[in-house]
Amino acid sequence: MHMSRLWLPLSISLLAWGAPPLTTIQDLLYRADGTTFSGIALIEWSSFEAGGTSNVAGGSLSITIAGGVLRVQLAAGGNYTVRYNSGGKTQFTEIWNVPLSATPLRLRSVRTMAGPVTGGALTAPVPISDVTGLAGELAARPVMGPGFAASRTAVISAAGQLEAASGDPVDCLRVDGTSGPCGSTGGTLASFVDGDTPAGAVDGANGAFTLSSAPSPASSLLLYRNGILQKRGLDYSLSGNAIVFAGASIPQTGDVLLASYRVSGSGTGTRPEILCIGSGAATSQATPVSLAQCTIPGGTLKTGDRVEIRFDVSHEGTASGFTLDVKWGATGVATRSAASAETLLTGRAEVSVQSGGAQWSSQTWGGTSALAAAAGTSAETGVSDLLVDFQGQTAAAGTDTVTLRNYLVLRHPVPASGL
Predict the structure, then answer these.
(1) In terms of Cα–Cα distance, which of 58, 37, 61 is closest to 49?
(2) DSSP labels for 166-188?
(3) 114 closest CA partner among 97, 131, 94
(4) How far apart are CA 190 and CA 185, in angstroms?
């Protein structure tokens, strides 16, 4: 019995495998000093199977990198060792894992790890001096000083080193690197005078006028005549709080003079600090609903501080009355109910922080509601987080609403000196 064999041409059988799929790697290389890299990239690989159909033999190729431009096509699925050579030295080595991609890939998409610097003329780590511009870049970087600490605001010491800012977590940092309670200047305070009308006869003949205070500095004075800013040294002269107009600039009958300027205060003081400000929500519920909240972080308030709370509420509808309750922690410091005909309610409360708690007082009034006042004490000290809660409700659920239009929580900190 005879068995026949079917033989295919060799060229047809080889087509079943096909050429390996190629991926393009394209990127721009720079040196540490910002200039583009120029040199040669030597790419080596061991044999592998590309795409499950093509056998790729081990080998190597060399590509030229000019002006930092690197572009090469490699069989997908292979691991490649790449050595970058410049100036006759291997500068660095890395490993590529090239996936199949129809679009060009950047180095970050194929780079898997950095390898040791081998080959070329190097037998030891590259000296910093051999990398152009690297020494200068390293010298320009700030370094950690002995006072460096994590999770703190950084300041630059006189030696140019990074140090951690000192002070309490709630302190404010000044531009000179010092810190202190927020609002404190640590010295003399500057005050502002706005809309000051200089004293003196405005009759077309008198040129001498007197301000309420002496501007400090003198350059802070803004003097207006009929809304037009006057120029010091040309329109007038200033000595202390005395103004003398030049002959051609003497105010005429009916002219209006206004001045704004800064003056020096006395002693160490503080400025108010806004803790919270904004508009609130609305409710038509007959149970208390939080219309706005202000959380004062624990440790912010000090003994002797004073906190001012202001609020404005509107009432829409005439079917039901309403109630507003401002709470300092668990203590109600401004509670007021109004009749259905009332459309507006406003008020303020002040809380004096003491060592063992707080003392408060409040006043509320409305368009038709008479002024009402109250006072009391609270056990809240502010050591832990303290919540100022603006709660509102209508007397009966329905179509009426009560809306917190605006609120302000203002802290008046005690000066560091205790004055």
Answers:
(1) 58
(2) PS-TTPEEPTTS-EESTTEEEEE
(3) 94
(4) 9
DSSP 202-223: -SSS--EEE-SS--SSGGG-EE
CATH number of 273-412: 2.60.120
What is the rounded distance in angstroms from the CA atom of residue 113 to the CA atom of residue 238?
73
Single-letter amino acid, residue 195 = G
Measured in whole angstroms, the distance separating CA 374 from the mean position of its chain's CA atoms is 40
| Res 337 pLDDT > 90 | yes
What residues pair up with 337 in beta bridges, in sequence order? 323
Domain ranges of the chain: 17-128, 190-270, 273-412
The model's pTM: 0.41
17-128 belongs to CATH 3.30.70.1270: no
Residue 74: C-alpha distances to residues 27, 80, 99 (Å): 14, 9, 10
pLDDT tens by residue, 140-195: 888 888 778 777 788 888 777 888 887 766 677 777 777 766 654 444 455 788 88
